[in-house]
Design goal:
mainly alpha, 3 helices, binds zinc ion
Length: about 60
């Protein structure tokens, strides 16, 4: 996956997650949510992958 694709996927996942929270009282109150769980897990995974990539790039001379 290219850097741009990776960032776009991360931003899409972020938007999906925040959109879900905006419409879901369970997630707003930190309660378990079967619908939201995979959406938030996807966002966290993409965020971690992105942060890892940025960190790896900073190590380059
Ligand atoms: Zn939810």
């Amino acid at each position: 996956m290219s850097r741009d694709q990776m960032f776009i996927a991360y931003m899409k996942a972020f938007k999906a997650s925040t959109t879900h929270i905006g419409a879901c009282t369970a997630c707003q109150n930190d309660q378990p949510c079967d619908a939201g769980q995979p959406i938030h897990a996807d966002f966290i995974a993409r965020q971690d992958a992105w942060n890892e990539r940025v960190r790896a790039e900073r190590k380059q001379p």
